[in-house]
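Let's practice the habit of predicting before peeking. Look at the sequence and jot down your guess about where helices and strands might fall. Then scroll down.
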Amino acid sequence: DAAGLFITKRMAGEIQGLNQAVRNAADAQAFLATSEGALEEVHTLLLRMRELAVQGGNGTYTAQDRQALKTEITDLQTEIERIANDTTFNNLSTLNGSHSSGVTFQIGADNTQTMTVSVHGISVATQLGLISMASDDGNLTTATNFQNYIASIDGAISIISTDRGTYAAAMNRLDHAIANMQNVATNLAAAKGRVEDADFAAETSNLARVQVLQQASMAMLAQANASKQNILSLFQ
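Done guessing? Here is the structure:
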């Protein structure tokens, strides 16, 4: 059945493409989960920085006390930069700002079935808008300096929270995409099986018909031979 063969081959190609798209979507989820997990750590670091800034804004602290607070804030900023530069997935940096146009994931069997997610960098000075404590502009020497810095940290926390929400929404969307593709692949496999079963049934029926005809021919031949022998016996 040429038509049946064509249909099953096409369905097999679609099923194979869908299965690969499911794997792509799972990889996309892992990429985003890696990024979101790193942002969670950055969020924790920013909250600690805010706590230190609030502490430094209190007028009861000496210059030496504020220097100690600034030193810890500097260390926390350094850790944020390390996370930004070292977070990778499959040797791809995820948070260093190299994906300014977003990351596009192939989540379907067709070339148009893609999803692009904005992936921002988290550089302390560039993306988060925080003054580096190692720079001359980052001197936290007075209570007012620390109080003003609280607003900058709040802005950075807002950026991180927004990005985490974006990644969570994208991962949720990928969950639905995976479920839908698995459903489509399952139904296509069932349809492919029905076409193949129909071809098998037809061939089985044809084989049975041929066998019946063959057996009938053999029976007729045997009967003819028997009749011939009976006639010959009359002349003996």
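How did you do? The chain is about 70% helix and 5% strand.
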